[in-house]
Amino acid sequence: MKIDLLSPASFEGGQPHGQFDWLRANEPVRWHDEPGGKGFWAVTRHADVWAVDRDFQTYSSEPTIMITDPLADAGNFGPYKMMLMMDPPEHTAFRKLIRSEFTEPSARLRQARIQELARQIVDAVIDKGECDFVNDVAGEMPSFVIAELMGLPLTDGRELYKLTEIIHTAPEALPPGAGGQAVMKMFEYGSKVIAEKRARPGDDLASKLLACEVDGRKLEDMEFLLFFLLLVDAGGDTTRNLLSGGLLALMEHPEQYAWLMADLEGRLPTAREELLRWTSPVIYMRRTARRDAELAGQQIREGDKVVMYFGAANRDAAVFARPDVLDLSRPENPHIAFGTGPHGCLGQHIARIEIDAMLREVLARMAGFELAAPVEWLPSNFISGPKAMPVRFRAA
To answer: Which one, of 234, 264, 242, lies nearest residue 145 by Cα?
Structure first.
């Protein structure tokens, strides 16, 4: 079995489950070569991913959660780090700054508004009979929600979403420097947000971030900009890719689609969790060993890269009965599509409300889905999902 978890081609069409199945059965913690880098351990069993993600004393999020090490002269933000690339207690202190906005009760307070946005999104396409589901529907919801959270115009949220797509695309699939330019454009926009919210603060997350303190001091501009990048970037990944990948899965499994539609409201919660398991929008997260350790019989050395593959963990037969079967009625579903431990996705409660709102609106009002052209997948080994998915449909 050829194992290549670096090439975006391996993720064309979704997660490379053939490779993952072989790895879990034969080398659940396998050394993977890295051209131009020192290589990494690929972790594919649920129990091992769970253990690594929770053991921040052994497996650090510094210097990065990406496989590729940061270059000394590119993407270097000096002493500043994104929250994803911190460990407790520093990570805990920064997470507390925004945690209250993302609790389950806070997310529920936004439910009615999110459902209203879902109606507006479907209203915009329902009479056309066709659309690019990724950009016209799935990508709209998280763009609008994060824009409202940050106190930004909804149309600006859409433009910021386009930048995140560039940031997630593998460098080899882009013009030279395009990823860095997208980050700089995000920072340029964020700098305008800083100026505006300091001059006219409101009851929004951007204003609150600029006003709050960590360790007795207010955030510096670069700390805010990294927060801004994280919130815009991470805010769209799971929702956008779950909605588009999830609809594709329903089209490919008509019997499951029919089961869901027989009681959409009652069956939506279990269906949503199974679609999260099935699609696993975030492919991996990297950690770096702080000290020598043993994992599944392999000797991990201090400084080694250890990469958790969530899509592999979510098809582990030791945890999931019939893991390769899409079962929207699956009663026990301990998937880790949102990660786990101290780095578990902070926005998962809002993401679930967004997903439910869009699936409720799309499936109740649009029917007869069929692909109008082949699906184009995001050329990325980090985020899994369609980049373009032209569909035809009729009003239900």
So the answer is: 234
